[in-house]
Amino acid sequence: MGNLAIMLDAGVGGPADPARAAQLRERLKHITDPDFVKKVTADPGKLAMDAAWQSGHSRDTAPSGPCVVACD
Q1: Which of 66 and 27 is assigned the larger pLDDT?
Q2: pLDDT digits 0-9 by tens, 25-59
Q3: Could you say which DSSP state residue 54 is in?
Q4: Do residues 1 and 24 make contact, with C-beta atoms less than 8 angstroms apart?
Q5: In a domain, 25, yes or no
Q6: DSSP secondary structure of 13-69
Q7: Which domain covers residue 14, as residue numbers?
Q8: pLDDT, mean of residues 17-27
Q9: Is residue 63 part of a domain?
């Protein structure tokens, strides 16, 4: 929901809606999980699998292969 609030502020995908963004941010304040860090870092095997999956599925990662920069 935090990412959605940023997109609503910026007007990504439609007109900017700062009121709805503020509403989402307010909701986020009430659903925090104090054990979140412990949950996501407790299993190193899961962290490794998540990182491996994300490296192949993220659009922000550089393409793998011999030519990472534009090749002629």
Answers
A1: 27
A2: 888 888 877 787 787 778 888 888 888 887 776 66
A3: H
A4: yes
A5: yes
A6: TSS--HHHHHHHHHHHHTS--TTHHHHHHS-HHHHHHHHHHHHHH-TTSPPPSS--S
A7: 2-57
A8: 89
A9: no
